[in-house]
Write a structure and sequence with these properties.
This protein is α+β, with helices and mostly antiparallel strands and 166 residues long. The protein contains three helices and three strands, in the order ααββαβ. Helix 1 packs across helix 2.
């Protein structure tokens, strides 16, 4: 009778290696997908703030005459946020991939103020915001639900606003 334990061990190691590689590939793709969602969300926040600025100041022809009122901008920003992400009044929608947003900070800093999040001095008047974004995990939801809350920091320089004066 021949001992096949060496062949069984080799086959087991190969199967384990294949399963591990497949698992790591799936995790890598999942993390890349989450990073893509967060990057696009950050770009969207910049655009929504710019849209809020224009909506609040729609009849102003010159940036110098703009209203710089954080609650007014935040109200318009939240309205656009709810519309774009189909969120309810609590900024939640459990059926979507981005299923919750919480506004931690929304401030307007004057030039040379210190950003409370990055601790850097700002060169221009800036809308500063910090959001918590809750993303619905697509795998192992019960395990990852608490781990998929991300903090997004975005600053929008108000002095660089260009308004078409036609």
């Amino acid at each position: 009778m021949k001992n096949n334990s060496g062949e069984i061990l080799t086959a087991s190691v190969i199967i384990f290696a294949i399963v591990t590689i497949i698992f790591l590939l799936v995790i890598t793709m999942f993390v890349a997908h989450i990073n893509s969602i967060l990057y696009n969300f950050k770009l969207e926040m910049y655009s929504l703030n710019r849209s809020a600025i224009i909506a609040v100041n729609k009849n102003k022809a010159n940036v110098d005459n703009f209203v710089y009122n954080a609650p007014t901008y935040e109200k318009e920003f939240v309205k656009l946020l709810k519309s774009n992400y189909e969120l309810d009044d609590n900024l939640e929608n459990n059926s979507k991939l981005i299923n919750g947003i919480k506004i931690i900070e929304y401030k307007i800093y004057n030039a040379h103020a210190k950003d409370s999040f990055s601790k850097k001095n700002l060169q221009d008047r800036t809308i500063h915001m910090v959001l918590e974004v809750k993303i619905k995990p697509i795998i192992l939801k019960s395990i990852f639900e608490k781990n998929f809350i991300f903090t997004i920091h975005e600053d929008v320089t108000l002095n660089s606003m260009v308004v078409d004066e036609r």
